[in-house]
Amino acid sequence: MAGEFGAVLRRLREKAGLTQDELERRSGVSVSTIRGLETGKRSNPRMTTVQQLADALALRSGDREELLRAAVPGRRVGGTGMAEADAPEAGTAQAEAAQAGATAVASPAVPPPPPAPAVRAAPAEAAEQLAKAVAARWQREEEQRRIQDPYPLPVRWKAASESLTDHWANIRRLPPGVPSGPLDLSGRLEGVAETYRSIPSGRLVVLGRSGSGKTVLTLRFVLDHLRSRTPAEPVPVIFSIGAWDPTAVTLRDWLTEQLTRDHPGTAAPGPGKVSLASALVDSGRVLPVLDGFDEMADGLRRPALEALNATTLPLVLTSRPAEYAAAVAETDVLTSAAPIELTDLTLDDLDHYLPRTTRKTDPSDPAAGAWQPVLKKLREPSPDGSPAPLATVLSTPLMVALARTVYSDTPEHDPAELLDTERFPGVRELEEHLLDNFLPTVYRRSRPGARGWDPERVQRWLGHLARHLTELRTPDLAWWRLGHGLRGSTRTLVTALVTALVIGLVDGALSTAFGGSLAGGVLDGTVVGLLAGLLFGLVHWFTYTVTGKDVQPSAVRLRIRGRPRSTKWRAGSRLVIGTLGGAFFGSAYGFMVGLLRALSRHAGPASALETGLIDAILFGLIFGGAAGLSFCLLGLLETPLDIVSAVGPGSVLRADRRTVLIQLGFWAPVFGTAVGLGAGVVVDLLQGHLGQLVMDPMSSLMLGTISGLGGALGYTLTLTAWGQWCLLARVWLPLTGRLPWAVAAFLDDAYQRGVLRQAGAVYQFRHARLQSRLARRRR
After folding, report:
1. With the CA atoms of 226, 227, 229 and 235 taken in that order, what torsion angle do they form, in degrees rounded to the nearest 10?
2. Measuring CA to CA, which of 173, 185, 308, 545 is 20 to 30 A from 480?
3. Cis (ω within 30 of 0) for the bond into 321?
4. Coil, strand or helix: which one is 187?
5. pTM for the full model?
6. 3-state DSSP of 302-357
7. Distances (CA, A) of 482 to 462, 468, 607
8. How far is 97 from 103, CA to CA, in rounded Å?
């Protein structure tokens, strides 16, 4: 039936007066693909390709239906506009049509209007921006990891065991009855993109033992794939699958969340009522590269594999062989996936690589170096014929990199000590030696412009971070989650106490300045501080601690000058949330202030209660109206970030800090003014209804000023990611010795030294083995 589709496509293209090159420019489908479809050399076109061609040709409902029928033979168009199967067997296009719901097929009775060009262009343009951002990010990361210095280690692979491989007919997307055989999947690092493209299903599993180079391979795959990518192909994006809980969130939702986290600009509205991130994932414009399947918790690998099998998404998955095999034994192989397994480095590889990483020791002999005697010794046969422990250790790129750091880059260390069998009788002792000496070695060196860190304290700080990640069961070290190393109750208590202290000091200072009485200022500051700390602490507790949610960095910025770009402004929800929150705080604040003021005048319990209730109503209306108005105005000024705006943890932190400070600088005067003016309005409206009310201009000014500053500070410290970072990571954790005072500088320095790596908006330890070793030593 491919010939029929090709003939229909050629006729409709010529009818539209387009050449194959012009159709390529309009649709984004490569001219080689179009030529292959029209000549019948390419069979079973994907539904996304058919839809792109139909949109580019601007087909009417009848022609669109004819093109789809040619691509999906044996199916009819139902009255609901869904393509329905007439037979149980279906080829690739049929299966994809069923998965996609065949939404492009128009019902003969009610033909849907073609999508607007602007709507179609939004995800396509976002995909191109995303591709540029991903390429720039991982190019910098490859340079940081010194992968090309002096050249990449030779990562090779072979086809994995047949027991971990799906039927080759499924992998090759062959129709029933067509003979199938295995693909030749052996290759090297520089050919990983070609190996992936040779798999018709677009699903690849990369298996390799710890430190074998899986992460380096995924990085090289992304860069090579992007270098040769066409606009019709999806954008490869690396996701650390170890942070996914398949029992709590679906794969597509999790991919959307991660994409929004690493590229905040994708939180902008896309077609319909979904974000750009959701539109990119749902439309198949993102190729998930899922790194670290083995880093998932034991009980989550089986549901994760089942969730992956429930989709037809093209993807790349990396894992250690044992963990993947165990998950396969519990359920099934990854459907339609071709697995490959990384092989060990050889002594020839070490001979070519390690001598080129160290200084020359003898000017008269250019080939002389510290590694030559060691490598020569490793080639000598052992008495029992087994390989030397050091040869086994140096068979993985991770251990070679650690050995290079400890010995090649430090002339005072001699790698010959690694041959001491009394000191290092086995593989485990050698690996632990390299892991334990990595940190002292990299922190012994001085970096230009960097402060010196005490290696013992560094060991303790990094051990705390490693244990923090182990307890959270995630490889992602996010700056906005550093406080999650504390218990939820402790985190909330610290938040409430610090918020109470800050607001109390501000209130006390301003009250003293306005009233001229130190005693009155201290009393008012104490009352307001304790009350504000209690209320903001409760809000933080119910919003984040009880629900288990994170305080996420802002995905928007404020645009004070000029009209913001199109952003969904949900005025109704903002008005309700702001009004209810402000009314609750104002009522509690008014009741406490009225009660204390009445008791200070030695009023009876009934009179004090009445005064408290009147002030509760008064301040509830004032603060509720002011908060609702302020939140609505903030919504008007919000505009989404650019997709390329955040490229790493540091830039995400700076962007969030800038957004929060602008919000604070805008919200404080607006809220304060609304409170000050609203106080006079509310007093006038309720005058006589609640008794004799008094609010002089000076009292209104003081109330507005204190409320604006106090409310902005309380919101910042308890409900923003940057505020929680300042409160917990910059104050509490350093105060208790868990982290240094300059946390951001410490993390960036650890990244520059190669201890940490960047994975989008978060850091990760250079390798899971290093994290595990540090966590065990800390424990």
Report:
1. 10
2. 308
3. no
4. strand
5. 0.74
6. HHHHHHHHCCCCCEEEEECHHHHHHHHHHCCCCCCCEEEEECCCCHHHHHHHHHHH
7. 12, 8, 48
8. 8
**Residues paired with 156 in a beta bridge:** 188
**Is 639:695 a contact under the CB 8 Å cutoff?**
no
pLDDT of residue 586: 83
| Residue 635 confidence (pLDDT) above 50 | yes
Eight-state DSSP code of residue 81? S
Q: How far apart are CA 185 and CA 164, in angstroms?
A: 14
The tokens of 21 are what?
């090159």
Cα–Cα distance, 585 to 596 (Å, whole number)? 17
CA angle 280, 284, 289 (to 5 degrees): 90
> How confident is residue 297, by pLDDT bands cut at 50, 70 and 90?
confident
Q: Mean pLDDT over residues 638-645, rounded?
A: 64
Task: State residue 82's pLDDT score.
Answer: 34
Q: In the 3-class helix/strand/coil scheme, how is 204-235 assigned residue by residue?
A: EEEECCCCCCHHHHHHHHHHHHHHCCCCCCCE
Q: How far apart, in whole angstroms, are the C-alpha atoms of residue 283 and residue 286?
A: 8
How far is 135 from 127, CA to CA, in rounded Å?
12
- The pLDDT tens digits of the residues spanning 224-276 come to 999 999 888 999 999 999 889 999 899 999 999 999 888 888 888 877 778 88
Per-residue pLDDT tens digits for 336-348: 999 999 999 999 9
Of 345, 348, 372, the residue nearest 358 (C-alpha): 372
